[in-house]
Design brief:
about 140 residues; alpha+beta; Ubiquitin-like (UB roll); five-stranded mixed β-sheet; 5 strands; about 20% strand
């Protein structure tokens, strides 16, 4: 049986109604809401002083946008802000890195003293017999045990 000319493929592409009519069951941009997800921003301003901000951010939000939205940098001076390093879950990250749901954005302060230098100074101050392995020595035992 020969095909009808009205149902051939070239004929269907010429029908603008079939291609340009919006379908009523398909969501258009005006009815789609932006998906939000939870992010945590953390800043330690000093020893045992941690500031935490829980946010709801939109898809495509970067780490810098989340930090700005948290408001944690407002009380800090410009010189302090420049010294901060940004990370996500303990890993150093770029400020333009897009965030994923439940990410933890962390702002790190610069170290005031190198940990190795601090340990050497503490050892020199306390002395060899009261520091490190020798601090908890049992009577009659060997050094370091």
């Amino acid at each position: 049986m020969p095909r009808s000319a009205s149902w051939s493929a070239p004929c269907l592409t010429k029908l603008r109604r079939a291609w340009w009519t919006l379908l009523s069951n398909v969501r258009n941009r005006s009815t789609v809401t932006e998906a939000l997800f939870a992010v945590t921003v953390v800043l330690a301003t000093g020893p045992r002083q941690v500031h935490v901000s829980h946010l709801q951010v939109a898809q495509g939000c970067t780490a810098a946008m989340a930090v700005r939205q948290s408001g944690l940098l407002e009380p800090l001076e410009e010189s302090e802000i420049e010294q901060l390093t940004l990370g996500i879950w303990g890993q150093k990250a770029n400020s333009q890195q897009p965030l994923r749901p439940h990410d933890r954005v962390e702002l790190y302060r610069a170290l005031q003293v190198d940990p190795k230098v601090a340990r050497r100074e503490r050892f020199a101050k306390q002395g060899a017999k009261s520091a490190g392995l020798f601090a908890k020595r049992r009577a009659g035992s060997k050094a370091g045990y």
